Each structure stands twice: as structure tokens, then as C-alpha cells.
């Protein structure tokens, strides 16, 4: 049983089919990539070459599908329309997907978490919201985290007043369609963006574009850190120019005062103001309080997994991240960014509950360092293990672009093609003007890139990508095989 028909869930289906294993995909939405559709207006910073699964490509190409240009940056809508939807419609896959099938519980048939005898040989029981009960010998949970965003409150719980209905009316999701469907909610208004990841960066860039078109639009950006260096990214070694450009352009907007930046701002209290907006009070580490008045708030504070549906399973979860315990040290955002996570597979994703695996975004718990290519390798390894091919299951590898961000300015046309690029910081050019970090962690598959990148003029020829820190770094690392 596979829960979720997003990129990783459908990759699991393709790999299970390739191994000759029966499967059923349960999707809560009304079509493949339902969560991706919700940020379909946003462009990924990673090109197509990193966003499709090899087993899925094989099935599609056998049916006459033509792969998109591997160097083009797709939008979320492109990912669904040009890859996930065709994959889900294949005769080998389509009969095995059930839509409008929301899973509310996964347990063992006739056994609660306490019962041990015969557990390994007892099928899983999967209960749906409509009351349907299904059984399966194994469960791959690729349901993601998009429906469970983090709160605004800096302590991991809602800030005072955050759940007040009058306040929530002013709070928007991590990636509103500022330049499209949601334009009227933000044009001519003051928006406070809270968060320091790719979601925040993209929304800030979109708002900056909106402010050029609607001059009465104002923007404030609040982060808990004392410096925005981590959001601006590492300036010396990002192999994806689009990822590096996010921080470069965002920094320029801040320095030009087009975006007001508040550092060391931990959201403590929210309440409606007399002018019809919302007042947000933040507390700094020394106890100083500052209050910001805003018309709209964008909560770009990341996402967290919902493990409530597996409460009767024996899961060994890391107490900090909520990921599988064996995986936690490999994805810890205090040590890793999305491109430095080492290869991992079935061994790191296993739990004391045999046959259950959380994969994709959900496997990372609260670590915002996930890339789609990582999830594809996870399900390839798990499918091999379920088929009994442990050599293949443990021969895990990843081909990821190095993270860090070689700060760049470039133009992306409406088809997602990078038209030119000029290095401007770190090892690719002059020394960076300020300290930079390891690069943004990402809370959405593949990382995101918004249209405002077209605002930066191209003033130099395309940089040499043949080597050095600006080249695509092959992280094809082989995992040592272990005996089971």
C-alpha cells in the first residue's frame, strides 16, 4: 500500500511495478500531485534532470512520452501536467490509484501497539475516512507534510492569539499566488512574511515585484536569526544557479530598503488592530519587544509530519526531528543542507514495525532539507528490499547538486530556461560582501524559484561551468553494504 500520489508516491508505484509487486496508491485529493497543484505557480530551482524518477521515466518512455528538456526549471504545475499526470494515467499505474481516499489510521489487523506475538506476519489495516478498511503486507507512507504547516509561534506552539479567528483571517499559507490568483489580497497592502527558508524567499521576491507594479504595497520580513546570512545562502559552491540567485536578489531588495528586515524577531503575540489589520509582537533574545502592524501575514515557517495516523504502530522516531531515528543524524538541518544529505535507503528508513516506511518529505520529519531525488532513491531501495533484492536495496546512491549557492544574477524566461548568468559573489567572482551560510534549507520538494528572478539584468556572459565550485558536483556516493 502506498499513501499519497505525489512525486515520491508515484515513484514508489513505478518501482513496485518494475519489481513485479502488486500495489495500491491511496490519494486524498482528486488527482495526482494534489499538494503540488497548490503551489503550481511557483518555479522550482532544480531543473527537470533532478525531478523525475528513473523507473517512472522508463514506464513513460515505453508509452511514447517525451521527457522535458533536462536543463529547464519546471513550475509546480509543469511537474503535475508534464510528468505526474501522464505517469498516473499509464494503464500499468492508473487502475491501482484510488482518489478521494484519505487515510485516517494505519495499524495491524486485530493487534494494537502492545501485542507482539505474530506481529510480523499480521497484515496492516488501513482505515479510510469513509470507513473503508483495507489490508496490505507493507505500507509506504508518502503523504508528505504540506497539510501540517508549522505555527508562527517561535516556541513550537501557537503564539498568543494565533488561533483567534479574527487573527487567522489575516494569515496566509507559505506560498500564496501573489502575482496571480491572490493578487488582490496583497496589492496595496502591508505584508509581514515570517520565515527564513525558500518559501519565504520566494514570497518576498514575488511581493517585491508586486510592489513595483503597485507602489503602495509594502513588505516586512521577520526572522528569528540574528542575521539573514543563512537565507541569503552560501556564496561559493551552489551548483544550481537558480538556488543561488534567490539569496542574491533577496539581499539586494533588503539593502535597497524595498524589503524591511527584522532580525531576532520571535513571534510572541498576535491581536487585531484598531485599523482592521493585525498587530504582531516579537521578542528578541534579550527580552525586548517590538510590534509590527500588518494587513496580511505569510506564515512561511516550514512544515511538520503528522504521525497521528500511525499511533498504533511501533515507530522509532527521533525525539527532535520526528524522522526515523537512524536517519536523523544524516538530515539534521543544523549540520546539513539539502545537497549535503548522504545517500540512504531501506536500512535508515526501517522501524521496529516491519514493513512500514515513511518516505519523501514525511521521512525527514521537521528537517527542511528534502530534495525529490532523495525520495526517489528511498523508494527504489525499499521496493528492492520488498522484492528480496537486498544487494540492490543497500546499493544506495544519489546524484545531487552541491548546496551553498554561488550567488548569481540571471534571467529565466517564461519557459523556465536560464538565458544568462553572471557570478557576483564567493568563489565565482569577487569576494562576497558579507558572510554566507550553507544555503537555504527547503521545505518544499526540490526547492522553489519565483518569477521575480527576471528583474535582474544580465550584465555578463555565462560563467564557465566546467569545473570549480560552480560546477554540478556529482555526489554519487555508494553506501557500504551491511548484513541484515
Describe the structure.
It contains 13 helices and 20 strands. The two termini are 23 Å apart. By secondary structure, it is α/β, with parallel strands linked by helices. α1 (7-18) packs parallel to α12.
Classify the oligomer: single chain
Biggest sheet, spatial arrangement of strands: 4-2-1-8-17
- Integer-rounded radius of gyration: 22 Å
Helical fraction = 10-25%
Terminal-residue CA separation: 23 Å
**Which residues sit in consecutive blocks of at least 5 with pLDDT less than 50?**
235-239, 403-411, 420-484
Shape: globular
Strand content: 15-25%
Mean pLDDT metric: 83
Summarize the SSE layout with pairings.
Elements: E1 2-3, H1 7-18, E2 25-26, H2 34-37, E3 43-44, H3 54-62, H4 76-88, E4 97-98, E5 103-108, E6 124-128, E7 133-136, E8 139-141, H5 165-168, E9 171-172, H6 183-186, E10 190-194, H7 198-213, E11 218-222, H8 229-232, H9 241-255, E12 260-262, E13 266-272, E14 278-283, E15 289-294, E16 296-299, H10 325-331, H11 346-349, E17 356-358, H12 372-386, H13 390-394, E18 408-412, E19 418-423, E20 448-449
Parallel strand pairs: 1-2, 1-8, 2-4, 8-17, 9-16, 10-11, 10-16, 11-12
Antiparallel strand pairs: 3-20, 5-6, 6-7, 13-14, 14-15, 18-19
Amino acid at each position: 500500500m502506498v499513501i499519497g500520489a505525489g512525486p515520491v508516491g508515484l515513484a514508489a508505484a513505478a518501482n513496485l511495478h518494475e519489481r513485479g509487486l502488486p500495489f495500491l496508491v491511496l490519494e486524498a485529493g482528486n488527482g495526482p500531485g494534489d499538494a503540488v497543484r497548490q503551489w503550481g505557480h511557483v518555479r522550482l530551482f532544480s531543473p527537470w534532470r533532478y525531478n523525475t524518477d528513473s523507473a517512472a521515466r522508463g514506464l513513460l518512455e515505453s508509452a511514447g512520452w517525451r521527457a522535458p528538456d533536462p536543463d529547464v526549471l519546471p513550475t509546480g504545475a509543469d511537474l503535475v501536467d508534464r510528468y505526474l499526470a501522464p505517469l498516473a494515467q499509464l494503464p500499468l499505474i492508473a487502475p491501482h490509484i484510488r482518489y478521494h481516499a484519505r487515510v485516517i489510521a494505519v495499524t495491524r489487523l486485530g493487534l494494537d501497539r502492545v501485542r507482539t506475538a505474530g506481529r510480523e506476519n499480521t497484515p496492516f489495516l488501513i482505515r479510510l475516512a469513509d470507513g473503508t478498511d483495507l489490508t496490505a503486507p507493507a505500507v509506504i507512507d508518502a503523504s508528505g507534510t504540506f497539510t501540517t504547516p508549522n505555527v508562527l509561534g517561535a516556541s513550537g506552539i501557537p503564539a498568543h492569539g494565533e488561533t483567534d479567528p479574527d487573527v487567522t483571517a489575516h494569515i496566509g499559507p507559505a506560498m500564496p499566488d501573489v502575482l496571480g490568483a491572490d493578487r488582490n489580497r496583497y496589492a496595496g497592502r502591508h505584508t509581514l512574511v515570517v520565515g527564513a527558508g525558500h518559501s519565504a524567499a520566494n514570497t518576498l521576491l514575488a511581493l517585491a515585484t508586486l510592489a513595483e507594479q503597485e507602489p503602495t504595497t509594502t513588505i516586512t520580513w521577520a526572522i528569528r536569526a540574528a542575521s539573514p546570512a543563512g537565507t541569503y545562502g552560501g556564496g561559493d559552491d551552489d551548483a544550481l544557479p537558480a538556488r543561488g540567485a534567490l539569496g542574491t536578489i533577496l539581499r539586494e531588495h533588503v539593502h535597497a530598503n524595498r524589503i524591511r528586515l527584522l532580525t531576532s524577531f520571535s513571534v510572541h503575540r498576535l491581536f487585531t488592530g484598531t485599523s482592521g489589520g493585525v498587530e504582531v509582537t516579537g521578542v528578541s533574545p534579550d527580552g525586548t519587544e517590538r510590534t509590527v502592524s500588518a494587513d496580511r501575514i505569510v506564515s512561511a515557517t516550514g512544515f511538520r509530519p503528522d504521525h497521528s495516523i500511525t499511533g498504533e504502530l511501533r515507530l522509532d522516531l527521533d525525539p527532535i526531528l520526528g524522522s526515523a531515528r537512524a536517519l536523523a543524524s544524516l538530515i539534521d538541518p543544523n549540520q546539513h543542507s539539502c545537497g549535503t544529505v548522504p545517500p540512504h535507503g531501506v536500512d535508515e528508513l526501517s522501524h521496529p514495525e516491519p514493513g512500514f516506511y515513511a518516505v519523501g518529505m514525511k521521512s525527514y520529519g521537521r528537517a527542511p532539507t528534502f530534495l525529490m531525488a532523495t525520495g526517489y532513491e528511498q523508494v527504489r531501495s525499499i521496493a528492492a528490499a520488498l522484492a528480496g533484492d537486498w544487494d540492490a536495496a543497500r546499493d544506495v546512491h544519489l546524484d545531487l547538486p552541491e548546496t551553498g549557492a554561488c550567488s548569481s544574477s540571471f534571467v529565466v524566461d517564461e519557459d523556465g530556461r536560464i538565458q544568462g548568468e553572471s557570478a557576483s559573489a564567493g568563489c565565482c567572482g569577487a569576494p562576497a560582501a558579507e558572510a554566507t551560510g550553507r544555503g537555504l534549507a527547503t521545505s518544499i520538494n526540490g526547492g522553489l524559484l519565483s518569477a521575480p528572478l527576471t528583474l535582474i539584468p544580465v550584465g555578463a556572459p555565462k560563467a564557465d561551468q566546467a569545473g570549480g565550485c560552480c560546477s554540478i558536483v556529482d555526489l554519487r556516493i555508494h553506501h557500504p553494504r551491511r548484513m541484515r
